[in-house]
Write a structure and sequence with these properties.
The structure is a single chain. The protein contains no helices and 6 strands. It is elongated and about 35 Å long. The two termini are 14 Å apart. It is mostly beta strands.
Length: 82
């Protein structure tokens, strides 16, 4: 899933729940919060535009998208290229 400008992170929930979808660097530091709040059951997608919280572009490299809800924590690797 390498991306240059933006990437879409898709996920599914079996029921309405509170979720938090965040991007972290390889050291585990929070880079950006994409989603924090309640969502209905179903398939969802969030887009990361490759920017950090300050609005600047994240450096090329490996990042981790972490999805947390009341029952699980799931992490996937994403790679930002030039």
């Amino acid at each position: 899933n390498p991306f240059e400008h933006e990437t879409s992170i898709r996920f599914e929930t079996a029921r309405a729940t509170q979720v938090r979808l965040t991007i972290h660097d390889v050291a585990g530091r929070l880079v950006r919060t994409l989603l924090a709040g309640g969502i209905p059951a179903g398939t969802h997608a969030a887009t990361w535009d490759g920017r950090i919280e300050s609005g600047h572009r994240a450096a090329p490299g490996v990042y981790f998208a972490r999805l947390e809800d009341g029952e699980r924590r799931q992490t996937v690797r994403v790679s930002r290229i030039r």
